[in-house]
What does this fold into?
Amino acid sequence: MKFYFSLLLIFVFPYFCTAQIDTSYIKPFENKASIRTYLSMKFISLQQETGGDMKRFMPNTPMSLGFGVSVKNTIIDFSYGYGLSFLKDKEKGRTKALDFQIHNYGRKFIIDLFIQKYHGFYTADDADKNIQLYPDLKIQQYGAFGQYVFNNKKFSYKAAFVQNERQLKSAGSFLLGGGVYFSKIGSDSSFVHKSKNSLRNFQFGISGGYAYTWAISKRWFTSGSVTIGANVGTERINDFGKQKIEIYPTFFPRIALGYNKERWSLGLSYLNNSTFSAFSDNNKNNIGLSSGNFQIGAIWRLNTTPFLSKKKPE
It folds into this structure.
């Protein structure tokens, strides 16, 4: 039985949240406290390209059921995955996973943290047939990613992905930031890279992109952002300056769709952070990692101090 606990503290940089906003574009909800429930699927997958042939290793992990409570700028989420194990396809083998992610959408800054350990993968064709199991394959990734939101007075990431405020008018913003990652891939025999059954990689770099939210109507919205970057890296931190430094492309898309009313909201979000642990121009030894989260949720907003309200005289 596994419990997954994630604590997201939006007040890590409280002074960033005091920025002025254009109230004709962004409007916080009056209720500062809320409860939320959601279905979430966290993941990490490996794509290995050798001489033009692509093989994709996927984990067999089900969706987890989550509950959350938020008060002002603090969100506490609890998710429980064991009870939804009936959603697993037994033909795709067994995956043991520890996946801890934080996605903090502040006014000026967004921060993503990844701690992921997966053991057991499978491959399949485009029709999800011809399944092959790789129970010995292990993937670990530790990463941190952050970006600055330039048009933070008119564009709100929180309105799209947290839904504790509303984007009244369509708006977008340029983004600038970067990330740092450490990955480790290994197996007994199923994974082979340059005649080895393991691969280590440390990399860091910069990225830039653009985000936009379409205020479709008073209730409906959709949002999307794309970030492209370049990292420099090598197998170990101590190898910088001693061995050849490699350059790796990065790609980080996010999408969200939601419906808001004053007391409740519905939302769907998806993000996929793509990096490379090995990259070559001739496609002979490319190793890509994709990690992220798909989530469907509902939010109910509460009166935070009902016991303090004065009763009207009869």
The chain has a mean pLDDT of 85. The longest strand covers residues 33-50. The chain is about 0% helix and 60% strand.
